Amino acid sequence: MKDQKSVIHSIRISKSLKEFLNSLDNSNEFIKKLLLNTDDYKKFLHKKEILENQPSLFDEIEKEQK
Fold it and tell me: Would you state the pLDDT for residue 41?
């Protein structure tokens, strides 16, 4: 994740959840690890990789023109 650009994303949470996050040494790392380890995120990455590695129609056209 270090090689990716980052952005800030805010979410609404309960006061008790906010208290919990404040009690952690590094709540940002905690949330990132929590999300990165979900099946949903892993499936998302898999689909993204497949789409990024698919040749586009334009790639095929360029090959034919050469």
Answer: 97
Residue type, 18: K
What span, in angstroms and rounded, lies between the C-alpha atoms of 9 and 42?
20
Which residues of the chain are under the pLDDT cut of 50?
A: none
> For residue 47, what pLDDT is reported?
93
Residues 39, 28: Cα–Cα separation, whole Å: 20
